[in-house]
Design a protein that fits this description.
Layout lengths: L9 E16 L4 E17 L3 E5 L6 H8 L7 E6 L2 E2 L15 E4 L13 H12 L4 H14 L16 H13 L5 E5 L7 H18 L2 E5 L3 H7 L2 E6 L2 E7 H6 L4 H8 L6 H6 L1 E5 L34 E4 L2 E3 L21 E5 L2
Parallel strand pairs: 3-8, 3-9, 6-7, 7-8
Antiparallel strand pairs: 1-2, 1-4, 4-5, 9-10, 10-13, 11-14, 12-13
Amino acid sequence: MFDAPATSRKLVEIRDLKMHFPIYKGVFRTRAGAVKAVDGVSFDIYEGETLGLVGESGCGKSTCGRAILRLYDITEGSILMDGVEIGPTPQARLRGMRPKMQMVFQDPQASLNPRMTVQAIIQEPLDEHTTLSAAEKREKVLELMDAVGLNRRFAGRYPHAFSGGQRQRIGIARALALNPRFIVCDEPIAALDVSIQAQVVNLLEDLQRDFGLTYLFISHDLSMVRHIATRVAVMYLGKVVELAGREPLYAEPLHPYTQALLSAVPEADPAMHDDARRIILRGDVPSPANPPQGCNFCTRCPRVMEICRQIDPEYRELRPGRFVACHLYNDDPTTAGATAAPSEATEPQQGE
């Protein structure tokens, strides 16, 4: 069995999404290549669920989230938001769609205007997208402050007067102002103290239940993703290499990169920590401007085969709700489930 999403209705559908940033060189700014930050990503997000998007720093998680909300003009691909294609839509025409999709940014201090009060920050979306009166806007702001656990008396204060956790609550209140259906949470707890992280995650869960929200939760904290996510997608160098329900993925990771990633999660139990078998990946992540031929992970994979260095594996549904992009699980009987000797790219170690 796999973790079922909250409903069977797809709210967001992404197909072959690509976000390439051009590289220019020389006096005449000649295009010399492109950074393939997101390179052919496909997945669905169901209404009411939380899809966790994980991977190491630089894999393209945040770029993917911003591209889905069309904060960038995408290079290629399809993005269906509640049945409406927004991939090729010009930015000017996206204005009417903005209330449905919002974002909570990673750094609450950098995402809040230091010259605006809390009242003005949360009210700004209402000023841009509604015709409410000044009194109605103020009441709405106060209701949102109540919803995220901020004291109403702080409405006239500026962001510098708040702690990191409080500033993130301001950002969440701003994202909720227009009653969105879909919110991208871009590492919303990464810049917070550990003691505050659980409070913010619990707040997000409460708001999801109260407002019927759908989340794309981007994070590199695998323990927190296991707590909040319904399903989990794993990214490596611009591609999704595995997607599955939360419990099946953590219990039985299929892709070698997912196995290495989960093996790095710290164990709270000292006995389990000492017995844990870590998969230590050797070498550096290749440059997204010059990814390797074949599978992006072939230069570091402990089970690499010759076909991996030549052909990019198909991202396919191995069984219901379980997607993986790896030649170990393809339809070729000569390679399906094959076991290769560990390469020099990794060295399993105990007690790391």
